[in-house]
Each structure stands twice: as C-alpha cells, then as structure tokens.
Amino acid sequence: MKYLSKRFIGKYRIIGLILLILLILFGSTPAITSIMMGMSRDIVFIITVGYALFTLIFYLIFYRRHQNKMGVLNTLKVLVVGFVSILTLSYLLGMIFGSNASISQNQEAIENMLALNFSPALIAYMVLLAPAVEEYTFREYFPGIIRKIFKKNDQNLRDIISLILANIVFALMHIPTDLYSFLVYFSLGFVLVMVRYLTNSLRLSAYLHSLWNLISVVILYFAL
C-alpha cells in the first residue's frame, strides 16, 4: 500500500482551492444557459467542444505528474471493481432507506435540465470536466491542505484522514437534502478515495468518476 505523500508535495494555497470550488459551482453555467435560452445547435456544439478542450487542458496542466502505470488490463479491472462497488453501495443504501430515500438538490436540478433538453453540452460537463475538476480538488488539492494540519500523525493515518474529510466536503458540495442523499455521494466519494489511495493514481479515480457519470447519464436518457 503506497503513501500519498509524494502526491501532496508543493505549495497549496487557499486561493487555489477557492478557484477550484468556483469552477465546480459555476462550470455548468454555459451548458445550463444554453438550455434555458434555447441557443442554436451551433452554439451548443461550440460549448460542447469548449468543455472537451478545457478538460484536455486541465488534464495536461494538473494531471501531468499523475501518470497511470498500471497497464490497460489492470486499469480495466480497477474500473470494473470500482463501478460494481459504487453500484452495490447505492443498492444497499436504497434497501436500507427504502421509501425514505430522496435525491439531492444537485441531482434534481440535473434531471430537470436533462428532461428539458438532453443537451450534449451539459453531458460533456458532467462526463468530462466535472469529474476531472472534482477529483483533483477533493482527492488531491484539498486533502493536501488538510494533511498539513496533521503533521505529527502517522503518515498513513493522515493520508486517510485528509481524504475522508475532503470526501465529506465533496458530498456536501452536491447539496444533499437528507442523510440518504448525503450517504449516496459520500459512498461514491469513498470508493473514489479507495481507488485513489490503493492505486496511488489520481487518473484512475478520475476515470472511474467519469465512467459512473456516463452510465448515470445513459440511464437517465432511457428513464426520461
């Protein structure tokens, strides 16, 4: 089991965290605006391509040190196991809460937007940009800041504490409406934390996050 300390070296600034949070909060604005204003297909196409290019640039800048050296087969294994784990936890939470289960405000807003217009721009944001930014923020940058608070603790322990505390913020950022919706996002983040921690690969957690969002979009497409 590898430590994450090598991934947390460097200068971590609160202002950088604020900028990342703002990007998470308002990154979907162009896509949502295009839906609400009924923009032409050409404009929507430009926004969609813009998301793809911005995601690529984000990866080139912020993921350049996070190479995935596991190989294609092992990468696929991690993605499959991670996906099944998220699905299993979601199913168990649904069984436990039953009729008391409800969706978060974030999920409700997404479903309403997609019901109004299954926009490729919004899908590009959900599948490409959002996972890339959220994984870097909550599985790398923010834990790096928290980790400095626990300097005297065991290195392995403070890695775990930092990632778990960041995951709580990750769940809260999705605006849960009750304990169930909080646990849905916390369980999603927990699997991503374990992928990040056990493989020491930020790229793998980002890939898994994108895969989960993609499958969710496909399910929503047929459900709506």
Account of the protein in words:
- This protein has nine helices and no strands.
- It starts with 13 loop residues before the first helix and ends with a helix.
- It has one domain.
- Helix 2 (29-36) packs antiparallel against helix 6 (120-147), helix 6 (120-147) packs antiparallel against helix 9 and helix 7 (155-173) runs antiparallel to helix 8.
- The chain has 224 residues and is an all-alpha fold.
- The chain has helices at residues 14-26, 29-36, 41-62, 71-97, 105-116, 120-147, 155-173, 179-199, 202-223.
- The radius of gyration is 18 Å and the shape is globular.
- The model has no long low-confidence stretch (mean pLDDT 89).
- The chain crosses the membrane at residues 12-37, 43-63, 75-98, 118-138, 159-176, 182-199, 206-223.
- Keywords: Hydrolase, Membrane, Metalloprotease, Protease, Transmembrane, Transmembrane helix.
- This is CPBP family intramembrane metalloprotease.
- One of its GO terms (molecular function) is metallopeptidase activity.
- InterPro entries: CAAX_protease, Rce1/LyrA-like_dom.
